[in-house]
Write a structure and sequence with these properties.
The protein is an alpha/beta fold. It has 6 helices and 9 strands. The chain has a 5-stranded mixed beta barrel with strand order 5-8-7-6-9. The longest helix has 26 residues.
């Protein structure tokens, strides 16, 4: 028998739906897209028009952010004329948070009505051509965090066994290449590998990751995309290459370097993302939530598509 007096889980679907409903009512519209800004990329939040702001600590169950460069707030407004929920900052496993906290912002975005998730992150380049300042468009990922964001009871209408064959939407990736060409930017495609952190990787680990098929490495994104896909949300991901991975140059790694490169090269990525979102305002931009439109070559790259190596 259910105990009707039991307190409401602040990170459960009902509680997050109530927060999302309040946010949407304040803004007067629901978001079409949910954009997650990673380390050093928070400046894009300044482009949101007439935003309604909701800091993380004002949401029950959302702890204050602890990582430099992660403001920890939602902005619901219009970006490039399209209703968008912009998330400045995120939670990480290495901060000691459980899966429910790390993925709560993604679930809140879904409850608010976002059908598309665009995730960004700062990453170390493993592949030789992925040098600091490059932008990598994610075609696939490898979970090397030692845990899965979907562990435990199924949340709401999420799937139990989620298909990640095409985690990053093929049609949205094609849109990204077109947007980059329009603003004179270059995208390199690749596979992102997520580690738990907070330590940077050892040179031996980087050599292993390269042999596993990883092109860049970071400490986020995989949990968010896994939960988004479990709920049927279409996903698009970018890695801003902020440093050479450990052992590639012999130089020590530090978070300040990540932040600095993120701020400079992040402006270019911001232009690409704004152009992508602007295109979402047009009719006939793609399939319904959860669809995978287009063909994939089987190795995560677009067949004969732009930017293929």
């Amino acid at each position: 028998m259910t105990d009707s007096t039991a307190p409401l889980d602040p990170l459960g679907p009902a509680a997050l739906a109530a927060v999302a409903e309040t946010l949407v009512e304040r803004a007067g519209f629901a978001p079409r897209v949910h954009l997650v800004l990673g380390s050093g990329l928070g400046a894009l939040a300044d482009a949101v028009e007439d935003p309604v702001e909701l800091p993380f600590p004002e949401i029950p169950g959302f702890p204050p952010p602890t990582v430099q460069g992660h403001a920890g707030r939602f902005l619901l407004g219009r970006l490039a004329g399209v209703p968008a929920l912009v998330q400045s900052g995120r939670y990480h496993f290495y901060e000691g948070h459980p899966e429910a906290v790390v993925c709560a912002p993604i679930r809140l975005g879904r409850e608010a009505g976002a059908e598309i998730l665009i995730v960004t992150n700062a990453a170390g380049g493993i592949r030789d051509d992925l040098v600091p300042g490059r932008i990598m468009l994610l075609t696939d990922h490898i979970n090397h965090q030692g845990r899965n964001a979907l562990t435990g009871p199924v949340v709401g209408e999420e799937t139990r066994f989620t298909d990640l064959t095409v985690a990053y939407d093929v049609q949205l990736r094609a849109r990204a290449h077109a947007a980059a060409a329009e603003v004179g930017a270059e995208l390199r495609e690749g596979v992102y590998l997520a580690v738990h952190g907070p330590t940077f990787e050892t040179p031996a680990e980087i050599r292993m990751f390269g042999r596993l098929g990883a092109d860049a490495v970071g400490m986020s994104t995989v949990p968010e995309v896994s939960v988004a896909r479990a709920g049927g949300t279409r996903c698009l991901g970018f890695s801003l290459i902020t440093n050479h991975a450990a052992g590639k140059t012999g130089e020590a790694l530090n978070h300040e370097e990540v932040m600095e490169v993120g701020r400079s090269a992040g402006r270019t990525l911001g232009k690409v993302i704004e152009r992508i979102i602007a295109g979402l305002g047009a009719e006939g931009d793609g399939g319904p939530r959860g669809s995978h439109v287009g063909e994939d070559t089987g190795n995560g790259r677009l067949a004969d598509g732009p930017g293929a190596e």
